[in-house]
Specification:
The protein is an alpha/beta fold. The chain is built from 9 helices and 15 strands. The strands form 3 sheets. The chain has a 7-stranded mixed β-sheet, sandwiched between helices. Strands 2-1-5-6-7-8 form a 6-stranded parallel β-sheet, with helices on both faces.
Length: about 325
């Protein structure tokens, strides 16, 4: 067996990295950060022996994390055999195009450009990303510097649904934009599916258009998406399914990208029976305690560990 990969992390993802160690040929690496009175941050990799080893660095492309992720990778690439960035949730993936506005900054591309600027380790760099909101993101990376490794989390979601939700199930969308994801998960689980059509009015408002596709009468509807933000679209879609005879509505997503009032809005809507996400993003942590009877969290680390291991060579 090859030497274990050294796992480093930005501060907010240290709990994720710690659990990841249990799910692959990994060993803990140590980092340190010190914030000075003027706001400057000194970062250091304390693990001395990374020369010739595979190094995995866990973090996100959030504003709070990306500079640390870049800095640790930039330093590690000098000595490591490979550098693999493990990004459970790619923040700004929804900002992947200009939408006809010439001056609009494509934030997803900016993130990819930053990570593509990391020097190439002797045997190459990887970036492993889980359930990207938009496939276009992977094409923004310079593959001669860092190889994008998008991973679908469908097996994790399917297992969670089987274990946590009872009844005669149908997999459903909160909007038609996730048609391929919905039909794929339904096929994976051997279930029927249903779709609604959403129209976005602006950054915060949506409406549901027309009739649903599929039958939900007497069914437990499992609405599935890659991420939950405000919850507004989900509540409107749930209302549509209930009006068509659905027995109960659950909301399931990979990423808990909740706005501050999203969970309160969902739990008080009286339309959603419960919410399930993975722990891909730290916003879930306090909410999992505050809404323990309504919100359930699935650990992503076992699946992430196995996925990362495949790319280490």
């Amino acid at each position: 067996m090859s030497d274990p990969a050294v796992v480093l992390s930005v501060p907010r993802f240290q709990p994720f990295a710690e659990t990841l160690l249990e799910h692959g040929n990994f060993v803990r690496g140590e980092t340190a950060e010190e914030t000075f009175p003027n706001g400057e941050i000194r970062r250091e990799i304390l693990t001395a022996d990374i020369r010739g080893k595979n190094v995995v660095i866990v973090g996100s492309t959030d504003d709070a994390d990306i500079l640390g992720l870049f800095s640790y990778a930039n330093q590690a690439a000098r000595d490591a055999r490979t550098v693999t960035l493990a990004i459970p949730f790619f923040r700004y993936a929804a900002m992947e195009r200009r939408n006809g506005r010439d001056g609009l900054i494509i934030a997803a591309k900016d993130r990819a450009d930053i990570l593509s600027a990391i020097p190439r380790a002797s045997q190459g760099n990887n970036v492993v990303m889980f359930d990207l909101h938009a496939e276009a993101v992977e094409h923004y990376f310079r593959s001669d510097r860092i190889v994008p490794r998008p991973v679908r989390c469908e097996p994790v979601i399917a297992e969670a649904i089987r274990k946590m939700i009872e009844g005669d199930l149908v997999i459903a969308s909160a909007d038609s934009g996730r048609h391929d994801w919905i039909t794929s998960l339904a096929e994976h689980m051997g279930l029927d599916y249903a779709l609604v059509n959403k129209k976005r009015i602006d950054g915060t408002r949506t409406i549901i258009l027309g009739d649903i596709v599929g039958s939900v009468e007497g069914k437990t509807v499992v609405m599935y998406d890659d991420m939950i933000r405000t919850g507004g679209t989900a509540i409107k879609a749930a209302d549509k399914y209930l009006s068509c005879g659905a027995k109960e509505i659950w909301l399931v997503a990979t990423h808990a990208d909740f706005s501050p009032d999203a969970m309160q809005k969902l739990s008080s809507s009286q339309k959603i029976a419960g919410v399930i996400t993975t722990n891909s993003y730290p916003t879930f942590m306090q909410l999992a305690k505050d809404y323990a009877d309504f919100y359930r969290v699935v650990p992503l680390e076992p699946y992430a560990g196995a996925s990362i291991q495949k790319f280490l060579g």
